[in-house]
């Protein structure tokens, strides 16, 4: 599983769009350009991103050509919580502890 913060580093910059268009002017490439420009404007308006990330294309590219990626095994941290229900109309007891991240 690849978290979104990783694919937020693969951005569609103007240089990426220009390289894509220089490589091909097929109908498919033009369609991809229009989709990426749509996502660029949406990400800018909704999230304030200067350039949109390539979440789904990164996933597809990894399936097709995993050698394009450097991969490390990681266990992502988070918070593990235990809830103890005390009784009717009484507050629950909630104990949470951070789970550390680790990569090899």
At a glance:
The protein is 43% helix and 17% strand. The chain has four helices and four strands.
Description:
By secondary structure, this protein is of the alpha+beta class. It has one domain (4-103). Helices cover 43% and strands 17% of the residues. It contains four helices and four strands; from the N terminus they run ααααββββ. The protein has helices spanning 4-7, 14-23, 27-47, 55-64, and strands at 74-75, 78-84, 93-99, 102-103. Strands 1-4 form a two-stranded antiparallel ribbon. It is elongated. The two termini are 15 Å apart. The mean pLDDT is 80.
Strands, helices and their partners?
Blueprint: H1 4-7, H2 14-23, H3 27-47, H4 55-64, E1 74-75, E2 78-84, E3 93-99, E4 102-103
Antiparallel strand pairs: 1-4, 2-3
């Amino acid at each position: 599983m690849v978290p979104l913060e990783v694919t937020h580093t693969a951005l569609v910059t103007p240089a990426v769009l220009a390289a894509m268009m220089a490589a091909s002017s097929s109908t498919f490439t033009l369609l991809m350009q229009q989709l990426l420009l749509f996502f660029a404007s949406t990400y800018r308006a909704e999230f304030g991103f200067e350039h949109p990330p390539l979440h789904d294309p990164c996933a597809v590219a990894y399936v097709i050509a995993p050698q394009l990626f450097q991969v490390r095994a990681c266990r992502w941290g988070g918070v593990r919580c235990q809830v103890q229900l005390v009784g009717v109309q009484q507050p629950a007891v909630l104990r949470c502890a951070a789970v550390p991240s680790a990569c090899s």
